[in-house]
Model the fold of this input.
Amino acid sequence: MADGWILGIESTAHTLSFGLVDATGSPRPSCTDTLRPTEGGIHPREAADHHVEVSSHLLKKLLADNNLKPSEIGAVSYSQGPGMGACLRTGAAAARSISTYLGVPLVGVNHCVAHIEIGREQCGCKDPILLYVSGGNTQVIARLDGRYRVLGETLDIGIGNMLDKFARNHGIPFPGGPVIEKHALEWLENNPNSSLQGLELPYAVHGMDLAFSGLMSAANKLVSEGKPFAAVCWSLQEHAFAACVEVAERALAHTGKAEILLGGGVACNQRLRDMSALMCEERMAESFCPPRMYCIDNGTMIARLGWLEIGYGRTTTLASSGIDQEMRTDQTPVVWP
Ligand code: ATP
Ligand code: FE2
Done:
């Protein structure tokens, strides 16, 4: 067991977040701030500047909210990769400084694995297929032989990135996913007998892999042809989520596992949650969704994975604490139960 609380620092992209687990690994809600550009995408340098600006306020708030003194922190965990270099570096620098100042161990962890482990902790599932759907990542993952293996993934852009870009093309600022969800819901409420006829989009499944940029171009084309924007939002969700759930279902069939766990920001979407639950019901499997605050990027998941790593004897030296933008999900040995 760790000696004291573990502080987790998440900074892979546009979100900076500090979170905590106590010495038994039990999570506390994170203090988070996300850069939301009013137009255009995220510039890594601007996101990194944002993280530097808000970090001291967020950390103070986290400690105050939990009535903690800095001396009660027993270790510092941070996202070592994958992500945008400039953003990762700010989190890593903060983690090194805090751990050196407090004289406590440092542990650099894999962001993707952290999404899985907070989901397992929150939902109590044992051996799930993870459907990891975020801005930058879309992967179907299973634990096999001591690693989380990627069974299928996007061949181009992440599903959240696709939703955000489609939204941006139609004047909706980042993050577009939740706004598309609202439009899709409204369309269905106003058109309960709606059909996808005339709103078809290309199929995004390639074996166990996925692809989303063709889907986005086709959706843009439907809007430019005069199809109602809300109807296209609905169709886009139906097609993109069906593709993800189909690959997840095939992963259940191939591995013989019986649990699906959703993770990543797009897992906040109720329609995706419902589709996954329906698929699982039909296969006598179970679909698990963590609370939304633990689907989006959060420091708590980094603290939770740091707690597991430290509990099983791994810490990171300063010399090996450099970030790894391209870190793969299956790079991390999974030695805990
Ligand atoms: P990662 O580094 O793991 O790729 P990320 O930087 O994309 O993560 P997350 O917080 O995991 O950050 O996910 C953000 C994404 O989730 C955005 O693309 C956003 O549009 C999408 N999203 C959030 N809520 C919803 C929703 N209700 N429906 C669809 N997409 C959503
Ligand atoms: Fe993430």
User: Anything to note?
Assistant: The CA atoms of residues 5 and 73 lie 5 Å apart. The longest strand covers residues 73-81.
